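> forwarded from #structure-qc
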């Protein structure tokens, strides 16, 4: 049985295409591994021991902590009465009222990046929760978060003095 002429040329082309696609896949794998190595420095990642993960800690901070509201965020700071040497823990609450999935994740990323330099200024053993409110596109999250944390710290220090 002899294959038609067009079929024969297609069969001859298939091994070349397979070789090209495997070469392309190898190049993509090499590029992705290079990206992972040269990605953003660790300074932009919230440390694991500074992440607020348990629902009881979220509840403690939001129910019993000091509350400060800004235009786009609500901050809660709970300072533990028992002195411990744990670092401060931070958590985010970003509901669907903020926007779609892409917008919520963008806001969360920007808030986390704004929190990283301020973690050291928080009292040891404290719990910080930031709740995002409805957002506009052109806000400066970095400055608003730093102002919010400054207000939270000053208000909680005033309440400790009383």
């Amino acid at each position: 049985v002899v294959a038609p002429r067009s079929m024969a040329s297609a069969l001859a082309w298939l091994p070349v295409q397979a070789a090209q696609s495997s070469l392309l896949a190898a190049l993509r794998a090499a590029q992705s591994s290079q990206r992972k190595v040269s990605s953003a420095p660790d300074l932009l990642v919230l440390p694991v021991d500074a992440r607020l993960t348990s629902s009881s800690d979220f509840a403690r901070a939001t129910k019993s902590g000091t509350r400060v509201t800004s235009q786009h965020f609500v901050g809660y700071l709970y300072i533990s009465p028992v002195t411990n040497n744990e670092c401060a823990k931070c958590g985010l609450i970003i509901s669907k009222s903020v926007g779609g999935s892409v917008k919520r994740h963008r806001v969360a990323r920007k808030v986390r990046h704004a929190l990283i330099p301020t973690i050291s200024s928080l009292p040891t053993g404290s719990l910080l929760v930031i709740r995002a409110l409805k957002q506009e596109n052109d806000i400066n999250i970095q400055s608003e978060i730093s102002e919010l944390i400054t207000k939270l710290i000053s208000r909680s220090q005033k309440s400790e003095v009383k």
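QC bot note: The first strand starts at residue 66 and ends at 69. The chain has four helices and four strands.
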